[in-house]
Amino acid sequence: MNYMFEALAFLCQPMILGNALFGGITGLVLGAIPGLSGGMAIMICLPLTFGMEPRLAIVLLMSIYIGGISGGYIGSILLGIPGTVNSLATVYDGYEFTKKGYPTRALSVAAVANFFGTVPSLLVAMFLSQVIARWAVKLGPAEYFSLAVFAMVLVIALSKEDMARGLISMALGLALTTIGISPVSATKRFTFGFTNLQGGFSMACVMMGLFGGTLILMEYAKNERGDGTFADVKIEGFRMKIKDFTSNIVNIVRSFFIGLLVGFMPGMGGTIANVAAYSIAKNSSKEPEKFGTGCIDGVWAPEVANNASIGGAVIPMIALGIPGDSTTALLLSAMTVQGLTVGPLLFTTQTSYVYLIFIAGIFAAACCLLFQVLGMKLFPALFKIPYHYLYPIILVCSFVGIYSSNYSFFELAASLVFIMAGVMMRYFRMPQGPFILAFVLGPMLEKNFRNAVCYATNGYWTFFTSPIACVLLLGTAVLLAYPWLVKALTKKTL
Question: Which structural domain range is residue 352 located in?
């Protein structure tokens, strides 16, 4: 309890409050604009946090994370285009309100739904993370290696991408982590005599290229909504009927647990939670024919679920040190750079930071709700910003952040190479999620694999004599074989 009060006291400082508010609004704005996202905001600010005091960096990045997921509904309701993929199903009924000339009702409900999804999920995560961490601290290197492999393959298996391409992407991410000095033997690997390669490639450099720069380049090439035009929509300000809430209590609670459970599973995240909650709400409704025509139930369900997935995704990140998607991978890397050993030991070695993560997220959700309530009339102005002005500003901020992280022109040049590599990955339809997860988890994967073999008396058999490691590896094998088994069985039935 003392650690919680310590986190609250830290947040009450004016400078910290300002950073939390700035982070929440920044994430909200970028999350609202189609083509951008809260992950983009984290990527831009990530290098800038390297020189910050660790607690301040955590508050800023958590605020951006919460704001980015919360802001996706704005584009869904006003444009019919999701600001982020996490608000995909919100379009179905939310945009119908705008077409009928009543966007205020849908925007108001979505703003409250974001808050009701985020805050309780973070409170649940605060408790469950401790429970899981107490169990996880008993795991050895073999179990951690198996768990990391299972999580990465699960991300590929649950995605809609081709598994072969996903595995290639994961292998490339793992290969990139081998450049530099070995984490166990401290030997130089694949440096080819270049001193700049001894430290490997920084997270900021890789993420800027494969994630940020590629996204901006591809979106700019599409030239969609590039002139900043947007049809005027009348928004009266925050207005929500009490009946809209009371008639959806069961829907809200059900969607909350769907989001929490789906968010906990690596590779699923807010998008699947958003769509699943909408589908279940429609199937459970007494009047399913109203969905898709402007039904307020169809706004509550997806928005509560995708924000509830935040708490679910934070649990494995904090308790196990395993991110569930590319955004939590960015958060995990930022914490690692700040000297935090993310995983089960975090609760015993740096307990105050754990509570700060959760309290900062809750405070950011409150800041986002306040901004949405007071600034709702300003939402249409977000879509009048010409993209040909916005994208260069983001690129310049990104390059400044990369340079300021290590003051290295080599990393600036490397980031351009990674942008081209990202374009090639898009061309060959290779998913970027597995690459990013592999790049983040690669050092942990290698360290635990080598430690497990070195500590064991039976060599590689230690992965099969450990019950937990064996079950996880068998589960990985099933996930890898499942697509081919399905195809084989389908051919036989035909």
Answer: 2-493
